[in-house]
Design a protein that fits this description.
This protein is mainly beta and 115 residues long. The protein has strands at 3-7, 10-13, 18-25, 33-39, 46-51, 57-59, 67-72, 77-82, 91-98, 103-105, 109-114.
């Protein structure tokens, strides 16, 4: 069965950094596009960053230059390095895998940025 488990969330002061991890199992990881999404209270879930099977990346304008998505196919893990965090980044962050037929979601990890 497919399982995506996020970790690394927590409470951090504005300007600080966190690195999120998403460990995948039950999929052929190297054949999946991976993405990070987030959802703040009262707001819709939004795309934060994506990375293709070939390593090409894309970012939402709101995080470009501050966040970096990467993947380690040997570890079946995708990461989101978050620097210069702002209170507006506070949200539950979700990992998603997509093999062009099916999509799978993790359970989410809470990121809270204090001012």
């Amino acid at each position: 069965q497919v399982r995506l488990v996020e970790s690394g969330g927590g409470l951090v002061q504005a300007g600080g950094s966190l690195r999120l991890s998403c460990a995948a199992s039950g999929i052929i990881f190297s054949m999946n596009y991976m993405g990070w999404y987030r959802q703040a209270p009262g707001k819709q879930r939004e795309l934060v960053a994506t990375i293709t099977t070939g390593g090409s990346t894309n970012y939402a304008d709101s995080v470009k230059g501050r966040f970096t998505i990467s993947r380690d196919n040997a570890k079946n893990t995708v990461y989101l390095q978050m620097n210069s965090l702002k209170p507006e980044d506070t949200a539950v962050y979700y990992c998603k895998a997509d093999d062009r037929r099916d999509g799978y979601w993790g359970q989410g990890t809470q990121v809270t940025v204090s001012s």
